[in-house]
Specification:
With 394 residues, the protein is α+β, with helices and mostly antiparallel strands. The protein contains ten helices and five strands, in the order H-H-H-H-H-H-H-H-E-H-E-E-H-E-E. A five-stranded mixed β-sheet has the order 1-2-3-5-4, covered by helices on one side. Helix 8 runs parallel beside helix 9.
């Protein structure tokens, strides 16, 4: 149902009232001159009822019961008005004006709908029947064509007006939909920005932990070794470790700056970087480390290689801090986009099910596995610990 606010009701009903009032004046004048007082009074009452129902329909048309009463009553009123004995032949003008007004009203209230179409066809059929009774057969074609031309213009105007109103309503609905969509997009953008910032904080936390924390931990181990050698009067060995510590400090500083600026260059040769990291571990701790490295057609992305080196670095740092191991084995096999990194030690082990809150090393390794689409498996018992980082294999 069209909202009646879309249909310019008051001007339309004023126009109908004026039109039918002028016809009523003509008819009443004829009846008064002919001395038909009874018909004169009946004509006044019928015109007042007919015009009054138009105005009532403006406010009551949403009730289904009202529809039946309204259109049935208006049909009877039109038939009665046309049947009165006017002195001049205004019957055709009254019939055409009344029925065309009812058709136009239905279009205004219901729009270009089936209900309006059915009402229009009904009143058109009534027009044909009443016109056939009012005029002679020879005049029927001319009278009908005149009414259809005049009425067709009004009906066409209402149909076009309804189409414009419908398009306007569609445009308004589309504007509301776009406004709602823009609001949802703004909310989604804010949420994405929040998640991006959160992910960036987590990434920076991992990067700083894997550079600063591991680097400083290595320096602490090397300084403890220097202290021990100096206490044993092994100055040459202590001096060598100091040089290594200086090299490591510079490297840690460079990596930290690169991580903060997000400018750290990706390793070009994964096998070489793994060997360097293990050599530094052995020199700093004195723990022997067996290496098995096989890199065949390396197609890993720079980001994946960075994650791999950081997982290895965190595992070696944990061995020094907690494992009390005397032997370490590192195995790294890379073929195409498949990676299998395994770090094994013979330390005291730990409970893999314990709460790791606050231990960012293990958390960082799991996050790196998730980010690369790989898996991280940790097995540990009293005989040692095995950490396996697998990528590209189910």
């Amino acid at each position: 149902m069209q909202n009646k606010k879309q249909f310019v009701g008051f001007p339309f009903y004023i126009f109908i009232s004026v039109l039918l009032g002028m016809i009523a004046v003509l008819g009443l004048n004829d009846l008064w001159k002919s001395g038909a007082t009874f018909h004169f009074v009946i004509c006044i009452l019928l015109f007042l009822a007919h015009i009054g129902l138009y105005w009532l329909n403006l406010y009551q048309f949403q009730s289904e019961r009202w529809w039946v009463f309204y259109y049935f009553t208006q049909t009877l009123l039109v038939i009665a008005l046309v049947s009165l004995p006017y002195g001049t032949n205004i019957h055709i003008t009254l019939l055409g004006s009344a029925l065309i007004s009812l058709i136009a009203e239905s279009l205004g209230l219901w729009g270009n709908t089936r209900r309006a179409l059915y009402l229009g066809l009904f009143f058109l059929a009534l027009l044909l029947v009443m016109l056939y009774r009012l005029v002679a057969p020879v005049d029927f074609g001319f009278a009908l064509s005149t009414l259809l031309i005049n009425g067709g213009f009004i009906v066409l105007f209402m149909v076009v007006l309804n189409q414009q109103l419908a398009e306007r309503q569609k445009a308004m609905d589309l504007a509301e939909s776009l406004e709602s969509a823009n609001a949802k997009l703004a909310a989604s953008a804010a949420k994405i920005e929040s998640l991006t910032l959160q992910n960036e904080r987590q990434r920076m936390a991992r990067e700083l932990h894997d550079t600063l924390a591991q680097g400083v931990a290595g320096l602490v181990l090397q300084l403890e070794a220097v202290k021990a050698h100096l206490g044993a009067n092994r100055a040459e060995r202590a001096a060598a470790i100091v040089e290594q510590a200086l090299t490591r400090a510079r490297s840690t500083l460079a990596e930290s700056r690169a991580a903060i600026d997000d400018l750290r260059a990706a390793p070009a040769n994964l096998a070489e970087f793994i060997r360097e990291k293990i050599d530094r571990f052995t020199q700093a701790t004195g723990i022997p480390c067996e290496m098995e490295i096989s890199v065949n057609e390396n197609q890993l992305s720079p980001e994946t290689m960075n994650h791999t080196l950081n997982v290895l670095g965190e595992a070696l740092t944990n061995i020094v801090r907690h494992a009390q191991a005397t032997k370490v084995q590192v195995k790294c096999v890379v073929q195409n986009k498949n990676l299998d990194l395994e770090i094994r030690d013979n330390g005291k082990g730990f409970d893999v099910n314990q709460n790791s809150s606050g231990h960012y090393g293990l958390l960082g390794m799991h996050e790196r596995a998730r980010l690369t689409g790989g898996t991280l498996a940790i097995e540990s018992n009293a005989s040692g610990t095995c950490i396996q980082f697998i990528l590209g294999r189910s």
